[in-house]
Amino acid sequence: xxxxxxxxxxxxxxxxxxxxxxxxxxxxxxxxxxxxxxxxxxxxxxxxxxxxxxxxxxxxxxxxxxxxxxxxxxxxxxxxxxxxxxxxxxxxxxxxxxxxxxxxxxxxxxxxxxxxxxxxxxxxxxxxxxxxxxxxxxxxxxxxxxxxxxxxxxxxxxxxxxxxxxxxxxxxxxxxxxxxxxxxxxxxxxxxxxxxxxxxxxxxxxxxxxxxxxxxxxxxxxxxxxxxxxxxxxxxxxxxxxxxxxxxxxxxxxxxxxxxxxxxxxxxxxxxxxxxxxxxxxxxxxxxxxxxxxxxxxxxxxxxxxxxxxxxxxxxxxxxxxxxxxxxxxxxxxxxxxxxxxxxxxxxxxxxxxxxxxxxxxxxxxxxxxxxxxxxxxxxxxxxxxxxxxxxxxxxxxxxxxxxxxxxxxxxxxxxxxxxxxxxxxxxxxxxxxxxxxxxxxxxxxxxxxxxxxxxxxxxxxxxxxxxxxxxxxxxxxxxxxxxxxxxxxxxxxxxxxxxxxxxxxxxxxxxxxxxxxxxxxxxxxxxxxxxxxxxxxxxxxxxxxxxxxxxxxxxxxxxxxxxxxxxxxxxxxxxxxxxxxxxxxxxxxxxxxxxxxxxxxxxxxxxxxxxxxxxxxxxxxxxxxxxxxxxxxxxxxxxxxxxxxxxxxxxxxxxxxxxxxxxxxxxxxxxxxxxxxxxxxxxxxxxxxxxxxxxxxxxxxxxxxxxxx
Amino acid sequence: xxxxxxxxxxxxxxxxxxxxxxxxxxxxxxxxxxxxxxxxxxxxxxxxxxxxxxxxxxxxxxxxxxxxxxxxxxxxxxxxxxxxxxxxxxxxxxxxxxxxxxxxxxxxxxxxxxxxxxxxxxxxxxxxxxxxxxxxxxxxxxxxxxxxxxxxxxxxxxxxxxxxxxxxxxxxxxxxxxxxxxxxxxxxxxxxxxxxxxxxxxxxxxxxxxxxx
Lengths: 710, 213
Fold this sequence. Notes:
The complex is a heterodimer of chains A (about 700) and B (about 210). With about 700 residues, chain A is mostly beta strands.
């Protein structure tokens, strides 16, 4: 089959999937936010082999999951009534999806539930022997025929101290024609709500049942015989913990749980958000993916699932997690290699020794127990990549890139057999990895040979961490790591450009940070390479008539507001003709602010990788308001993206430029720092500190570096 | 009041939409719109345009990346709707329109890109799907094709909702990764990783189902 044939095939998938994923409508202005939480981006696996790893992991540790067909936490659209000072409750997870262009008669639109108050008496315990049977179509059936379904029922109830937690369903049916081996008995419920009651009266709920409509996600598929297992209650040291887990699977045998944690604070059911920054590029997330083997330790406030540990900060429950108050933190529980590691137990790998295990991929008795996958000498130090339980399977082979399975990969630095440093490189949450021979070498730590010694790049190679790279040196067979947190001014990939000046024992990272290493006392000095602001005299006017010619330093646009002059500058700028519009390519963009002839501030704005040459004067738009000044910097002005005019907003105060954040950024979406819609021909209203555009009004709060939308 | 041009069944050009304001057309139920089309009422097309014009344009633009082609493609969609309803009576008009628009747009894309590859979003999508296929024999038998589509539906049905929406947005709506990332409030890298995994899962799933893509 050709890719184009597969493409055609995908064009004929079931209507319900088109409906579910319906893209924003240019005409009716459906808002852009449609996801309810940052994606749990477990990049703690080898990205080049991520797909295979995911498959393996799914079978091996049950770490793949089918999420519920409708999330317990719905697509999110921030509620403009909320302030950032408000306590974080489930009520904040709300949606104001515009349903105006649809109607109840539209067969493609899920039913709208408009309950204001949940009364338990409306939800009798479910009678599994009397559920309406609607044959055919599973999810699509859920969208339709709502009147033929069991309207309301309590699916499960769990005692939680003085409270009771109820799992309430709406529009419930079964479809015996759609059973499969994954469920003992399938039960469909279009909505599932968690309601907290005390003394028989509902006092709080997860506030989601009317909001999942916007994604048309198609309802929940539950196991009728396992309803009581969806909720768990624990009493941590100083707070209750509720686990809502939605079990499902992609492949037979790979059962896992899509999980959301809740607690009860001041009679409120509050969702918990975790700090995943140690294991993922996503900082905060409501979602946890658990395998069946997880264990909760109530006295230690932890949940440990394989090599992932969730530590709950009970004192933060109910607080705004984006205000340095994450409700739990997630970290690896790396294997303790300790002093027991003996490299001689890991003989050099002979690829021909890796057993072919066919489909019996998890029978570790068949595997090669240990091997040194690769080894190299750097000065007096030996760098080794070791692994365990090696085996291969034709199930996962690619002709041009044969891969094998390996567990517990570890990167080791040693000298004459003495272990100096070990770093587990198996990837976060994934023990079994697919590797090809070529990929092994990617796991070696980077090394930089200087005049006086060796500097090591000590970040994990199997993950994609962000931030300034960590360098280290070895003294007396001990590793000394250098981190320079105070210099982390922006998010950078550690895979940035590193320039080595051996004779000066110096590294330069991304042309910004300069590290000078002193091998005599094992210290380093880190400094910015460009300690001074740019000189506008180095920049010439952009020549619009030059095509395909690199213009090194140019002024792309200038705007004046009050006593300030705002420059849009480009480095390495090339204008290229194109069919739709002239493309202005650049190596780097800068915005500089001049006052009284001196540059007082400069930033590198977030932008697409090129500019629209016919709209250069539209990108940078300063504003001066009653409470302060700043500028709009458009992210994208492609003509075909004209309906999506996204921009960043910045404030200029005391010669400092600050990127303004959307005041609902503490909610799960949109992500902090995302470009925000600012319609064309917007109008600045200084008196109200607002920017009025065709789809709304942005009000800037200069004091708090935020803006709100109405 | 919005006067516009639409295709007449006879192939000529007629001015329609005089009786249906944008607002009222947009407010019509799909069943009413389909009813108008069954009655051969050209205002049904006006209603389609007003209610779903932007939606169709977004799909076409994702594939064609060209304003003029997009406009022509969407007009072709309206024409195809007029030609196919009746006898077709779509259960979900939005999905029906999405599929028609996608097919017309991709036909146009292929005509215009027969001699060149690469450099645009649709070419990227084809390249991504290359990872799922073996470039072996074509699926020509309609019965097998039908079964494969059913298998893909089963696969999609078992995916996590987020992965499924991303996958469909990318490979059915041909939405750019950046746009998906914006919609989901996440990074382009996260979307790419998710899509990469889902493609691998699709390949594996289809293999388990006995299909060699």
